[in-house]
Amino acid sequence: MISQMKVRGLMFDPYNNAYILVLRDDDSSDMLPIWVGKAEASAISFALEGVSAPRPMTHDLMKSLLDTVDAKVISVVLTELKDNTYYAKVHLGYEDSEYSIDSRPSDAIALALRTSAPIFAREEVLRKQGADELGQWLENLKPEDFGKYDT
Amino acid sequence: MISQMKVRGLMFDPYNNAYILVLRDDDSSDMLPIWVGKAEASAISFALEGVSAPRPMTHDLMKSLLDTVDAKVISVVLTELKDNTYYAKVHLGYEDSEYSIDSRPSDAIALALRTSAPIFAREEVLRKQGADELGQWLENLKPEDFGKYDT
């Protein structure tokens, strides 16, 4: 089983001096918080806000490279959660084949947002996350913190 | 005219809270300091030190994507220096053609180091830099700060 996730918010977490990217499955309302660094957060927020930088940012370059060779990001998938670390794959369509490439979730999502590719999470990732204490953190957030981004 | 540049050092600049990537043309001894952010500096230092992260870093993903479609980074070129901002191009070989793609120098160099592609600078970039006051900053550096990296 796999669920399609939407980016619902990007927040600063002062306790960990990091950013939290919140993904949500709109069907089940399952949430997935992913801690990302400042650079990753800014790569994602630029895409969310449709900001175009004067010079291409890293994931803009990645997209340009793929466009040049006519390769297409079909989807990105959060495949695994192990020791509080998420793993992801970028599914790349090229010629008549599909390739699956290892990635950090933050890169995969920054790329997906720029290429309008869907973001999926495997069920076991959502299930594992549910067992963590992250939910508690999220419960303390105000509802208005979510839903800032509709993608 | 174009000069081949080698990465000679990566230093922290406490005055600007940024990192300085120092490129050098071994033939002419011309130096080119490029200020880069923390994320870019770490992308470059990982490649310089041959450190392999447990999960692919952003430019490792970029390389994987290019490898998947059999595209090759032929070279990267620092093309312009305008208002203290450098501009660069990634020259990509794909099928029988060469494509030139806009990039920030830090991304271009992080990618070049991972793909063993040569780094070039146009003469006007080196000349312009010479006219700046950056040289003075560099003069104050100790010789042992350079030459940390031989690429």
Name the features.
38% strand; 5 helices; globular; homodimer; 151 residues; seven-stranded mixed β-sheet; alpha+beta
Structure commentary:
Two copies of one chain form a homodimer. Chain A has helices at residues 38-49, 58-68, 105-115, 123-131, 134-139; strands spanning 2-13, 18-24, 31-36, 72-82, 85-94, 97-103, 119-122. The first copy, chain A, is built from five helices and seven strands; from the N terminus they run βββααβββαβαα. In chain A, α1 (38-49) runs parallel beside α3. Chain A has a seven-stranded mixed sheet. The model of chain A has no long low-confidence stretch (mean pLDDT 87). Helices cover 32% and strands 38% of the residues of chain A. The longest helix of chain A is centred in the N-terminal third of the chain and has 12 residues, at 38-49. The first copy, chain A, is of the alpha+beta class and 151 residues long. The two termini of chain A are 22 Å apart. The A-B interface holds A 37-39, 54-59, 61-62, 64-66, 68-69, 71, 85, 87, 90, 92, 94, 99, 101-104, 107 and B 37-39, 54-59, 61-62, 64-66, 68-69, 71, 85, 87, 90, 92, 94, 99, 101-104, 107.
